[in-house]
Amino acid sequence: MPGNPLAPGAARRFIRAALAxxxxxxxxxxxxxxxxxxxxxxxxxxxxxxLVTNAVVHAGTSVDLLCRLESGDATEPAALVIEVxxxxxxxxxxxxxxxxxxxxxxAYEHGRGLHVVAALAECWGITYRPGLKTVWARLTxxxxxxxxxxxxxxxxxxxxxxxxxxxxxxxxxxxxPHRTPRRHDRDWVNRGALSFLAEASDLLAGQFDEDLxxxxxxxxxxxxxxxxxxxxxxDAAGGPLAAPRLARVWHAREAAVEPLRAAVEKEPxxxxxxxxxxxxPMPWPSVAELGPDGAxxxxxxxxGGREVGVLLLGQAGPARIPxxxxxxxxxxxxxxxxxxxxxxxxxxxxxxxxxxxxxxxPSRVAVIPGIDSAFIYQPSDEALAxxxxxxxxxxxxxxxxxxLGDVQGSGPEAAVVxxxxxxxxxxLAREGHAVHEVLHRLxxxxxxxxxxxxxxxxxxxxxxxxxxxxGPHDPLEGPQARFLSLLYGELVPDADGGPVRCTLASAGHxxxxxxxxxxxxxxxxxxxxxxGVIEGARYESESLSLDPGDTLLCVxxxxxxxxxxxxxxxxxxxxxxxxxxxxxxxxxxVAERIKEAxxxxxxxxxxxxxxxxxxxxx
Length: 618
What we know:
Layout: H1 7-22, H2 31-35, H3 38-58, E1 64-70, E2 79-86, H4 115-120, E3 123-129, E4 132-140, E5 162-167, H5 183-204, H6 210-221, E6 228-233, E7 245-251, H7 257-264, E8 280-282, E9 294-303, E10 306-316, H8 323-360, E11 371-378, E12 388-394, E13 400-407, H9 412-430, H10 435-460, E14 484-492, E15 500-507, E16 513-515, E17 521-523, E18 542-546, E19 551-555, H11 557-560, E20 563-564, E21 567-568, H12 574-580, H13 587-601, E22 610-617
Antiparallel strand pairs: 1-2, 2-4, 3-4, 3-5, 6-7, 6-10, 8-9, 9-10, 11-22, 12-13, 13-14, 14-15, 15-18, 16-17, 16-19, 19-22, 20-21
């Protein structure tokens, strides 16, 4: 079904039709279903409505609905299983903390978002597969709820698939049942350990939030390898006095989560360095919901020789946890620790990049008299400082200056050039240099700075002697090359409200486009060579008048070179065509129209930084 508001109604009609078909006399459905009343059909409709609505609201993708009958026998009643799958398991959860994602929807606030499902279903849970998340619920045909704590493992599922299960509770404070080691546990370790670890690696790989890693780890462990677990994470900054933070507490029965949290959050397990990654026996928590006794083990989470956290898990019952299980847990936790370390490294990189980005972009842009302005800046990767930049600032003697630049490459090298170019531009403009002279001087500064950087690189890291032409990592090539495309101009408003005089020049940059009120569009500058390429290069500027209603559009190549297969957005003057349809719009409306057209041009998000500046004469 399509992921829209019509899906829940279609799902209700589908399940009613299916139940009516199964209830007809004959071999299609079990005898119990033929005797069930309208109340069962009504409850099934409520269940499917809740599950489909949840998928539509929080995933926004198409929805797959599967309804399956499980025939009963003398000891087990027949059951209806409803599975609802979406195709976007990493979508951000609305209204949840930034670290919580849709793939932990039922974990967030311990499943309180699906009260109705928990109340009606015998059991429910989540099944994860690559690119797919399925929420399932099982409804007994006779409507009788199971005894509290009954084990509802679905043994037909592949090991490691089911990550969360919550049984319907008749008594929220009933003690957990004793869970003794079972024969199939050892058999499963022998048969499915590699599959479990492979699927765990797939789920943990690429997760950039350490709290999400902890959540997934808890849901993978419980209930397959333990009845409950708690995960503490050390301070990422590594402060010696910082206390570990309780990141996740999980239990196979939802009603026991909060009592377990209250018991374990008082003091995290203290493990010696000699414990390494092996299990350390711990006292069984004194919590009625956990049962009178059981086996509890603590593990250090270590990656790169550094501890990143501690995990405590437990299994109810008098017997110890088998060695096969503890060994598998050790292998699994090594993957968890690696994922936490990678998430922390990504977070540090993203934080540094955001700080750099704030310093490279203006905190505010100047308001130019008689000019309506708007700008859009969207880096392709928020974890890296982009190479695009913009600026609007006052110049000398009543002039107002604007700039839109694009540094070759991205990351630290691009950030260095951006950090140099923007203040140099402001300094040169305020000294009263003409537009073409500003470009000439900036070009010379970039050439000189690149030469000094290359000489410093040679001194600090001399390359071994070898024959042949320079390689891609030679100091004078590749990363040290500092090229900049720049559109720079100045505006001089008329004191009497007449046309605004605009002088501008383009150095290796997409040409600015001028939109007249009649819808005609033309290029407003001539192409010239990149800055930082040729020492002593000379630049020319052009002047024009911006009459009321005229709009000047300046963009980076993230707009013009946006790709869709083998085509680019600006092929056959695609940008000018879109701009021609913007006559009469405000600067903000023009900017939004261009951005929407760029995004609609391809099926995937833009792969390059996107920046555009719109100046409209009032």
